[in-house]
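For practice. Any example?
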Amino acid sequence: MCQCFNIDVKHPRIFTGPEDALFGFSVLQHDAGGEKSMLVGAPWDGPPNNRKGDVYRCTVGAERNSSCSKVNLGETALQNVSKNLRNSHLGMTLTPDYPDGFLACAPLWSQECGTSMFSTGICASVSDDLEPRETIAPTAQRCSTYMDIVIVLDGSNSIYPWYEVQNFLSNILSKFHISPDQMQVGILQYGEVAVHEWSLKDYQTTQQVVEASMNISRQEGRETRTAYAIHMACTEAFSAERGAREGATKVMIVVTDGESHDGEELPDALEECETRNITRYAIAVLGHYIRRQQDPETFINEIKYIASDPDDKYFFNVTDEAALNDIVDALGDRIFTLEGTLGYNQSSFHMEMSQIGFSTHTLDDGILFGMVGAYDWDGGVLKEGINGRIMPPREAFESEFPLELKNHAAYLGYTVSSVVVGDWKRLYVAGAPRFKHKGKVILFELGDDGEPNEIHVSLQIGSYYGSEVCGLDIDQDGITDVLLVAAPMFLGSGNKEAGRVYIYTLSGSEEKSQDARFGYALAATPDLNHDGFTDLLVGAPLEDEHRGAIYVYHGDGIYITHNYKQRIAGYSISPSLKYFGRSVSAQLDLDGDDLIDLAVGAQGSAVLLSSRSIVQINVSLKFQPHSINVIQKTCQKGGRDSACLNATVCFTAVSRSPGSHNLLVSAMLDDRKLSARALFDDSSHRQTQLLVQVHTGKTLCYNLPFHVYDTADYIRPISFSLRFKINNTESGPVLDEGWPTNIKKTIPFFKDCGEDDVCTTDLVLQIVLQLHQMYQLSGLNYFFSSFLYRHKPYVIRSPRRRLAVEVQLQNRLENAYNTSLMLHYSRNLHFSSLSIRVSHVLEVILLSSSLSTNSHSCNVSYPVFRSMSKVSYCWKNLLPLI
């Protein structure tokens, strides 16, 4: 179910895309000159054999069923970088760029280097109008196979048979990885003259050069001018006009079967090669010498002289032309392991698998990248800033990631962020969720003296602690208040992947745990509840059997509230949603109501949730008159004299959003009394309801008249309670949950008791007994007394049978309320009547009599026995029972 506050879950906008493309893997809100949209990453977009990935743009317009269109960034942004766009998975990361636009990253973008694929990663900076600006691939390196190779081939008459040479060329060229980004090959054949069979720039694929090699005819000639050919190769074949590339490793392979006829020119030719930094492999083919049974020592020494040092690496000799094929593999391996390049047989990686763009964090002066695959997957970080590139070496984090653990694959840079501490110093944050299989987060500076500081290491293996981090400036003063670290695979009860998020104040920690990979996605959002503090979104995509949920936490001062304010379950949005909460973004107003909206990714879907305006209702309540005067009745209600009053209720709406707000208002009188002492005029009941429409920034008042009948309780005041709520709870604004939605006041009774409103009375009671026929009845004794007086016993005898009690009550000070008298007499007397002597317009009412208790009760001038009033009356005919 959905526990709600001000995120509208009744009117979501669900954008769907290809599920197998992982549409919804990442989301980012986007505003291009007032045109609002949601960008959705689909990193597996494309056919099964080429998941290039892409980004979709979902327009947030007036039509709720707006569709999404593919941006085709894979074709436009990365096309000029490399022809190899296979399985690059663009759209895994979407991040706002500074000062505008956004970054779309393809961390699995790979460089083909020989038979290896190195996933260095790449990001595209895209403008707000979705035009690619530049590509960012700071860890991309030239392949070790970025070589310009020229084969200087002896084609004189002594080379025989020629087809064996062609086979050698075909075999060695087939091992080369020919492409503009890797190897280029040119061939210069010589004898008496030298000829460029083809130049470096002529062929772009291995297949092309292999086919071309089979069509090379022998040049022939009686002389072998090796020095001339080497010099020509150095000066012409490696020239830019023939396709030589700046920065490429220059390699020359000299294949010859005899001593040169211009050997005296070799020193100059080789010096020219050294000047141009050309590495030389030299192959001596001994077939001509063996066939003629000549000593090849001089020839071999010349070829060793031609080869670069040391000889055991750069010099080869073979018995004949056919044996050239026996050195193909060895020659290829030596070429691929030239000094300064990374060979196939080496196991240590630096930046080759860095996967830049797996995580990104936008800074004011650049971008912080996580390099999760750098340094044998120990990971690393890199800052690409306006002042240049900063990439700490592996040794910079050695204190936190010892070299003896280098094979543990800590994945530093799985997520990156930054915080600003009290002295306005910026610290960078990086998570390493696989450190010792538990996870770790470090804070560090990027400078000469910056040392990383460990925050915490998870105590549970496999929890993936540090896979997401998020710093929050809750009070928005520029200083980070808390840092949140997620451990989405933390195992809870029953070994379920419950997930946990840890909250740090940077000087201590406190943890908050929830369910189902809680913390898989984290996002700060600017003030959802309009209290001036930054709030937090937490994704839990495995909740509710993988249907997912998100949680909204509010900022409070410089901290985050412990309890979530709203939980939004994926199935409450749509029963078909899965992995709802795998990505979140909440920075912009996309629907034009000046309120922050939420973008949430799911599997194959992206959901836009609108915020609802928050309203504070200020209520005032006044009464006219200010008290209830039961002495002077002002109106008649239901045929009875009553005290009539009016309650004036005023409402003022305060909200960021203009407009009207419909309230349902309930009012109640005397809510704690079993029977009401006051009733509303319109309903003649103690309760009434009304619909009120208030406008933001305006005050609207309503009158609620009511009346009070005579009542036995004039002491305790009458309460007036008022409650209100938004009439339409499905849409529109919501009431501020921290703002009061009720008001209660009391209306006192008018006492006329001076400035202190405390009635001080002085009631004086006088009693006189009148015995009309005084006689004694033998054997009978009778006893009489009142509740205020004690008398001696009187004996009533026949014929004195009648007894009267004269009573006078006087109030000498302030008003007395609910004044009453009680007469008690013995059981052998019988009450006859009550008569008033002096009343002064005051009433004496016989309220009750009880034969069983022999008593009578009278109210005196009910309800008020006024100051200086006097009343006299007589209880008559108290007769003895015979």
